[in-house]
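Lab manual, section 2.4: Encoding a predicted structure.

Procedure: take the sequence of the chain (245 residues), apply the prediction step described in section 2.3, and record the output as structure tokens. A sample record is shown.
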Amino acid sequence: MDEIEIKEFKKMGLKGATVIDGLPSISLVNTIAANYLVAALDLDQIAALDSNQFPAISMIYAFKPKFPARIYASEEFKIVIFLSEFRILSNLYRPLAKALFDWTKEQNCSLIISPVEWSVESSPTVKEEPVVQGVGSTDRARERLASNEIKQLEFGAIPGISGLLLNQGRWSNSDVISLIIPVYSDISSVKSAVKAVEVIDKLIPEFEIDIASLYQEAERIEDKLRALRIQAKPGEAEAPVGVYR
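Recorded output:
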């Protein structure tokens, strides 16, 4: 198995914090949502993730080099975000899920929220909102979903890092919530990303998101991401899919 090394830059007291899995999946949704939360809450980078299986790239932001996978956090808001811009290869799912879960336990964080994208062929009507469903690893997590009126998935399958985190949470009696975010093939990822942030906002009472600015910023982030993809066409296999932060 490919090992994931966590390089810590800064210590924070994160007991009881919520960890957001912002690692990219099938589209830009997770990356848009994670980048927005990092910027809106002015989170500090406290660590980087590294592996010999990561792309050979340095992300440049505000003149500074950044590792392609990073951890951001805030003691005030009791939130941690794992964020990456590159496409995650399937052989990295297990080591990344293990690194995220083990680090969360070491920091005494209380909950992991892991959005996972669900591809939908037909777009919703103008009046319809994407319906986000949740799955909880424990009775506590399922009660949290119920108390926030988030529909729970009764039957289905959760793939990738999110599914692995759910299984580990079930095994160790740790609270993990997977949020199933519908992604429509014929419309922008912005609406789905905004819905993901809205649901995360419900689940974490320590902060409140300005939804009006969220739409504007999500659109700006998506535009930047798509421009980056065009620029990176020659090396698409290892191209970043996120915005530099």
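Check your result against the sample. The two ends are 29 Å apart (CA to CA).
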